[in-house]
């Protein structure tokens, strides 16, 4: 028997002996290596934005990398308490959105310096353990706008958003700029429903836009595509692809992939190298954090010249030759 095999066997027997010593089966000993991760969401798991974070964490759980717990529909008033419970419970990484609970979330992070936090935020990272992320998907939003500009016949596009915060504003501005590139005559009607999840309210706002002549609708919120479908109009999706539910309505969507950000955070926590950082750029196309969804049922319905322009612009973005402007100011309606 070679000395190497003896050495390997010795190592194995030693590790088994150690496992037995602490009263663990070998598999249980290895299971302890899983990171404990918790997430706190103020809306349901199926809400577009949150669904992408949840999906990335569920994928890590399915790979056996993490133990994952999550709370949905947590009110702003209750957010700090839930955060503290998860931190006290030994979770090594806590993920969520801090937009309406910024001060409370940052206070909890300060109280638990050994826990890592990765939260959606318009603010800056905070030492030693508070990283921020954002859906920097303005690039595919621009491309989807180019398609919208080429699909409208009335030159009127309706846009329904949640709240006029930077995360929403920058996507709307990018979409509008893209639409203007392919159709300088296009006009926009913009409404914010002041809710992250109120499909009936979004639907109502969309009907009002259709009544004023809009034939393409930007569905930043759930409910818009339903209204477009009912009235035989077109919709452009955001964050997720819902074309399978609206095959004759949703032309294109700007997709957000949270996996690059989540996988980076998990790796750094595991290596003990997690530091306060802005994860926003990992949502950009070059990091595979976003993309224009396949056109699917609309592959043959989008004019060929528009498709050619979109493909060329996409190539320029990926090559670093074209930068989509980030404008976080509140967009205004331009329709007369």
Task: Characterize the structure shown.
This protein has 336 residues and is α/β, with parallel strands linked by helices. It folds into two domains: 34-133, Rossmann fold (3-Layer(aba) Sandwich), CATH 3.40.50; 138-255 and 290-318, 3-Layer(aba) Sandwich (Rossmann fold), CATH 3.40.50. Helices cover 42% and strands 17% of the residues. The protein has helices at 3-21, 26-31, 48-62, 76-88, 102-111, 138-151, 166-182, 199-211, 224-230, 259-270, 304-318, and strands at residues 35-40, 66-71, 93-97, 116-120, 130-133, 156-161, 187-192, 216-219, 234-239, 250-256, 290-292. The strands form two sheets. The chain has a six-stranded mixed β-sheet with strand order 7-6-8-9-10-11, with helices on both faces. It has a five-stranded parallel β-sheet with strand order 2-1-3-4-5, sandwiched between helices. The protein is globular. Mean pLDDT is 91; it is low at 1-31.
């Amino acid at each position: 028997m070679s000395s190497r095999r003896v050495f390997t066997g010795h190592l194995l027997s030693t590790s088994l002996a150690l496992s037995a010593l602490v009263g663990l089966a070998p598999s249980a000993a290895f299971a302890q290596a899983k990171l404990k991760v918790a997430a706190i969401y103020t809306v349901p798991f199926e809400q577009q934005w949150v669904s992408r974070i949840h999906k990335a964490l569920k994928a890590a759980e399915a790979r056996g990398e993490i133990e994952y717990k999550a709370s949905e529909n947590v009110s702003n008033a209750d957010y700090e308490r839930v955060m503290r419970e998860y931190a006290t419970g030994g979770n090594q990484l806590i993920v969520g959105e801090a937009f309406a609970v910024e001060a409370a979330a940052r206070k909890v992070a300060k109280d638990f310096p050994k826990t890592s936090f990765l939260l959606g935020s318009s603010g800056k990272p905070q030492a030693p353990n508070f990283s921020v992320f954002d859906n920097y998907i303005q690039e595919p939003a621009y491309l989807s706008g180019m398609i919208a500009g080429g699909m409208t016949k009335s030159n009127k596009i309706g846009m329904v958003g949640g709240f006029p915060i930077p995360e929403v504003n920058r996507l709307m501005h990018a979409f509008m700029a893209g639409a203007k590139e392919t159709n300088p005559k296009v006009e926009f009607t913009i409404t914010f429903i002041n809710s992250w999840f109120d499909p009936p309210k979004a639907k109502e706002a969309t009907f009002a836009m259709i009544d004023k002549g809009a034939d393409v609708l930007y569905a930043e919120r759930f409910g818009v595509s339903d209204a477009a479908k009912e009235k035989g109009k077109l919709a452009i999706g955001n964050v997720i692809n819902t074309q399978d539910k609206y095959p004759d309505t949703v032309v294109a969507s700007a997709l957000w992939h949270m996996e690059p950000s989540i996988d980076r955070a998990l790796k750094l926590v595991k290596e003990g190298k997690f530091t306060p950082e802005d994860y926003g750029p990992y949502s950009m196309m070059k990091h595979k954090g976003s993309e224009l969804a396949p056109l699917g049922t609309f592959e043959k319905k989008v004019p060929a010249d528009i498709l050619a322009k979109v493909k060329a612009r996409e190539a320029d973005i990926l090559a670093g030759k074209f930068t989509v402007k980030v404008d976080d100011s509140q967009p205004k309606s331009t329709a007369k």
